[in-house]
Amino acid sequence: MSIIMTLVIALKALSRNKLRTMLTMLGMIIGVGAVIAMVGLGKGAQSTIEEQVKAAGTNLITVMAGNFTQGGVRQGGGMSTTLTPDDAEALRQLPGVQYLAASVNSRAQVVAGNQNWSTQIQGTDVELPLIRNWPNKFGSFFTSQDVQSAAKVCILGQTVSDNLFGPDVDPTGQIIRVKNQPFKVLGVLAPKGTTSFGQDQDDAIYAPYTTVQKKLQGIQHINQIQISAETPETGPVSAEITDALRARHKLIPGDPDDFMVRTQEEMASVRTETTKTMTTLLAAIAGVSLLVGGIGIMNIMLVSVTERTREIGLRMAIGARGKDVLMQFLVEAVVLSLFGGLIGIGFGYALSAAAEKFLEWPTSIPPNAIGMAFGFAAGTGVFFGFYPAKKAAGLDPIEALRFE
Amino acid sequence: MAAPVIQIRDLVKTYHVGEVTVRALRGANLDVEAGEFVAVTGPSGSGKSTLMHILGCLDRPTSGKYILDGKDVSRMSKDDLALVRNRKIGFVFQGFNLLSRTTALDNVELPMLYNGAEKLRAAQRHARAMEALKAVGLGERFHHFPNQLSGGQQQRVAIARALVTQPTILLADEPTGNLDTRTSIEVMDIFQRLNAERGITVILITHEMDIAEHGTRLVRFRDGRIQIDQKIAKRRNAAEELAALPPPEPEKDDAPSDEVAVEHHGGVV
User: Fold this and answer.
1) A197-206, A209-218, B70-79: which range is least confident on average?
2) Which residues of chain A neighbour B56 with C-beta distances below 8 Å?
3) What are the pLDDT digits (tens) for A10-50?
4) Domain enclosing residue A220, as ranges
5) Which residues of B fall within a CB distance of 8 Å from A318?
6) Closest-CA residue in chain B for A318?
7) Bridging pattern class, strands A115-124 and A259-263
8) Cross-chain Cβ contact B82/A311 below 8 Å
9) Does A138 fall in a domain?
């Protein structure tokens, strides 16, 4: 029998019991719909992170001072004093390095008038705005002149400016006090918001690193070097940096690095992995409902085979072969699951559209998810339809015709 | 004379039901010529149903030979038997076995969906099914569902379904078992006409002697063997019987009372 005739017979058989057909399909609809919606939510979260990473710059490399061991006591990362401004200058010469800024971190209470605020003091270099792609909102960034002279100047982050001077105030030219030393405010950076880790990037003040080293900390070393590579391919550049620093720090093979090189790519991939895991988890849970839907199909097909035993016997008596009967029931199961899958795709779209509209969660359903859902639905139909169909095909026509 | 349509030789069929061995057929021999109308009778357990299943290629004998239309079908594979059932045999059952919620026409078209290599277009199937329905006097009711038809009408749909593939033999297993006297005679009338006008070989299984007497030959089974095999001397004529019966009571629903008469006198086939 041709596949079209089999399909026609299957559709007729299913239309004979519409309510049951609908209820059986409901399992598939919910299963496929849930998978689509969950994948949509997961992918949406993922692409949000990717956008954030892209906004932060994918070509960022951070060199951090490493740990060091003093008399068997291992200090934490960033405690090493081996990273110096000379290292930074040496790295600047490496091919592939576009911009570079040495940086020193500190925390302090800052005071302006009768307001005070505890914040991070970032000692950095003139190329930071270029590395972070970060323009000024008011005023201007400090100059290399300021760095050389260790001038007591600073740029405020938006949060600091708001807390010391109030919102929408241009504090350029004002004086703030950091550890009882007056700093002239040169401007305010454009607000950048929080990182995807939840850290407020605007809650900091930026000063020349030399100033922080000499006037606030009294140290010679630096904590970090921020670098932007010429291309987003940061792998080779970070390898060169590692080699150059090991040579400068006279580390022999076998010695551990006394610094750490991190690329934005690496950090982003950690977060992407996290969301991927979440997406997989959600899809797996949704997949369970797909499985339940499949079992529902199997259950109904088994009932159907029993109910239609006489019909099967008759079909065999008038010339249906075992494989004709097998195909008939298999096609019925696949039609059930495919129709269910099709409606389920629509349902999934509606669900994620609703999530986007009412919960304001970003969603994006990848086009291949539809193909996959359809394939899964068909696979479920074949897998769960096969046993009942096999049972039908294996019936003895004489017994089947006598069945009451 | 041509070779017999059906030749069975030393047919034995043994079942195992749990520990018990049932010897349903113990060496049956039978030749049926084309165009015969054979009535098979016998008490229950005599082996007539088993014979029917083997004749209908629904079952295979334990030993012995069954030659149908010149071909030995006793050792054929299941799939080949399915094709033989489709092409050479028309079944009529006691319980009609029509597909519910399926129109008479679709029921009659059913066997043509399983006819293997011979592909028929929808229009051809339709035309053949309509022709078969007209042959049993139901041309007007092709779009009715089985639950809208009386028992006699349902059985006539079943006969149309058996006819539609133009089989060599028609196998009827207690076709009047669920019908009243009048409709039973109507069904026998259809068989007699198909037998006489189309030359279809009819094998009729029944335990009612008056039904059996519509055939040309009587085969009586007992304990798995043929006990009596004789010509029916005084054959009943269903058309005459119907004429002698009082006119049928008007049917309550949609069957007009004069329809049956129209069918009989109108030219069939």
Assistant:
1) A197-206
2) 317
3) 888 888 888 989 999 998 899 889 888 888 888 888 888 77
4) 60-230
5) 85-86, 91, 110-111, 114, 161, 165
6) B86
7) unpaired
8) no
9) yes
Same-domain status, A10 and A89 = no
B115 Cβ under 8 Å from any chain A Cβ? yes
pLDDT in tens, A61-102: 888 887 665 566 666 656 677 888 888 888 888 888 889 999
Same structural domain for residues A194 and A105?
Answer: yes
Q: A41 and A79 share a domain?
A: no
Q: Is residue A245 part of a domain?
A: no
What are the structure tokens assigned to B97, written together? 């076995």
Average pLDDT, chain B: 87
Q: Is B91 on the interface with A (CB under 8 A)?
A: yes
Q: Do the Cβ atoms of B114 and A319 come within 8 Å?
A: yes
Q: Which ranges in B61-121 belong to alpha helices (H)?
A: 78-88, 104-109
Ranges of residues in chain B whose predicted pLDDT is under 50: 253-269
Q: Is residue A358 part of a domain?
A: yes
A179 with A136, same domain?
Answer: yes
Note the pTM of the prediction, 2 decimals.
0.70
Q: Does B145 touch chain A (CB under 8 A)?
A: no
Q: A136 and A278, same structural domain?
A: no
Please answer whether residues B155 and B96 qualify as being in contact, where contact means their C-beta atoms are separated by less than 8 angstroms: yes
Q: Residue B162 to residues B20, B93, B156: CA-CA distances in angstroms?
A: 36, 10, 10
Best residue in B85, B109, B174 for a mutation probing chain A (most A CBs within 10 Å): B85
Same domain, A153 and A47: no
Query: For residue range B152-166, what is the model confidence (pLDDT) as tens digits?
Result: 999 999 999 999 999
Q: What is the pLDDT of residue A315?
A: 93
For A372-388, the pLDDT digits (tens) are: 888 888 888 899 999 99
Between helices A85-92 and A234-248, what is the axis angle to 10°? 130
User: Hey, what amino acid is at A80?
Assistant: S
- The answer to whether position A241 is within a domain reads no
Q: Is B82 on the interface with A (CB under 8 A)?
A: yes
**A393 and A283 assigned to the same domain:** yes
- The shortest C-alpha distance from B204 to chain A (Å) reads 17
What gap in Å lies between CA A307 and CA A328, rounded to an integer?
A: 15
Count of domains observed in chain A: 2
Q: Which residues contact A270 (CB under 8 A, 6 or more apart)?
A: none
B79·A313 Cβ contact <8 A = no
A302: closest CA of chain B, how far (Å):
19
Q: Which domains does chain B have, with CATH numbers?
A: 35-62+82-265 (3.40.50.300)
